[in-house]
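Hey, can you fold this one?
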Amino acid sequence: MQRQFRLHQERGAGGQVSGRDSADAHARRSGPSLLDEVVRKVPMHVGVTSVPFHMLAVSSQFQPILNVDERRVEGYEGLIRGHNMAGQPLPPETLFSLARDAGDTHHLDLLARALHIRAFSQMGASAAPLLYLNVYPEAAGADLHDESLFAGLIRHYQIDPSRLVIEILETGVEDEARLKDAVQLYRHLGCRVALDDFGVGFSNFDRLWRLEPDIVKIDRSVMRSASQDPSARRVLHNMVRMIHECGATAVIEGVEERRDALIALETDADFLQGFYFARPSAAVFDSAVATNMLSALVDELEQGTPLNRSSAAPALREYAWLVENMAEAMERGTSFALACDALLRDSLALRVSLHNALGERIGCALNVKHVSAADVQTRDCPGVRGWQLMQLVRATLAEPGIVRLTRASPSVSLHEECVTLSCCVVQDGQPCVLCVDVHQPGSRGTESMAAGRP
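Sure. Predicted structure:
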């Protein structure tokens, strides 16, 4: 027996169904015939790359979404593309604006899903595990009234529904309860659910709590602001943290430059997407290109490199000396707090932290002169964190006599870029890792600090 889903209808004066239910009426009126029309326009055989819609040609493109922790392509987002009779491209919002009514919008939405699923299913399971499908909230509401529509597409194109992620677009919808019912429908079919374009437009936290998505995609405009404004970086970081606290994974969209990628990686986001790694393409390209780019960035942030004292900036040589002195003092019995006080009093270090071999933080001290009150309160500040930390811990423990240095990366909390120095220190007979986050040499006062020691 098929599961029954709670349906919500609102009626206007005189008991008439309101305009918002026109898509529902369309679905009830023509569910089977609509499915037949969609699969006829998007046949299974290879060679059909576009389908007609109101004198336009509609086609699919795909953009990879990268898994940071596993350094691989997690999946591809299916993106609808349209061209007019002159061959001029039209953005998706223009395509959907040409729909005559809610039923027409649902028709176009189903056509797009069919195109994406058909093309993706023909790529084979090895291409990527997941396909992300954009669904307008209005179309999601129409899906509610005939489960056979979307379920029929899945069966017809022979794709495992567990490989599908339904992206609910962040547009306005008159009945949020119906949208939640649609999310339940997609989960019942075996799909995952993502909340798209989070942080702009109709985005609201209530929808995040109510829909309980598996994945939340942060809108590209947030990344654009974060690349230019340190305050926006803090907002981005806090968005990722909030998404994680809600039990979902976070995708940062709009990663267009190397600097964007470094900022996004520093937030501990789970997945990245953007032109820096790959532009949308009609065919899935060799994912090794994108994954190699990601791996190179992750290596820079995770492991660092042994500090070359002969070529290092004077400030970094000074910090390395201070870090080694602190480690020696702690191994002689000086407490972590007292050793930190001596280092932070005389330098522009931002944070000192101590980690065990599992990467767990067992000590932390902040320089209140250079870290904001908000950072002191949350115990959060620049430096390695989350997925970055484990490899740095392993690399440092593998060479206990070496001070390691991470590459500079944009700070979430400060206007300057920061680096982290690390070294091994033995505490209670166990090897631990001491990390010191400092301003990148050349930023506020770091070079002048070094002048006080030969």
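Residues 7 and 318 are 67 Å apart (CA to CA). Let me know if you want another pass with a different chain boundary.
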